[in-house]
Specification:
By secondary structure, the chain is mainly α. It folds into 2 domains: about 1-95, Rna Polymerase Sigma Factor, Chain: A (Orthogonal Bundle); about 95-194, Orthogonal Bundle (Arc Repressor Mutant, subunit A), CATH 1.10.10. Helix content is about 80%, strand content about 0%. It has helices at about 5-20, 25-45, 50-65, 75-95, 100-110, 120-130, 135-145, 150-160, 165-194. The protein is elongated, with a radius of gyration of 20 Å.
Amino acid sequence: MRRPSQHDLDEAALVRRFLDRRDEQSFRLLYRAHAVAMLAVAVRFLGGERADAEDVVQEAWIQAAERLPSFRWESALRTWLVGIVVNCARNRLRRSATVAAREVELASIAELPAPPHVTAHVARIDLERAIAELPDGYHDVLILHDVFGYTHDEIGVMLGVESGTSKSQLARARMSLRRRLNEKGTGRHERRSR
């Protein structure tokens, strides 16, 4: 179990004030401290859809407010909040029919030959698609670790897994990503030489 920092103690006081009095100022301070990080994770998990990400963050705050009385401070508050965002984003993706439509559009676009000045953009689309195609566990750990810089211990708390599981999923995600990108590169080369 980790030792609480001064920051944790200050946040714990804000949380207590919010819970005891439903103090709006306390909630605003907590919101300002964590909303940007929560939104960044939501945007990334939802493929850049900011409006959907804002909805997910709002849903996460509602859930957090309901669950705050049971928060045990075994992790940083931000880690716990981002874990709620990840779960809300996953649920939204499961419910969303637009994800399938976007994949079809991207697949159609990928078949068109790219002018030389957009090659970097196409490579980014290939990378984004390869990341999106990873299994949920691999995808989530890769994003949380490599994009947002969370530790394996923090990711374990967020996703409800052991830190060792996070480490192995990250290694497998990176291997899978390399393989997918190499296959795409090989496929592109074969199309051009025909």
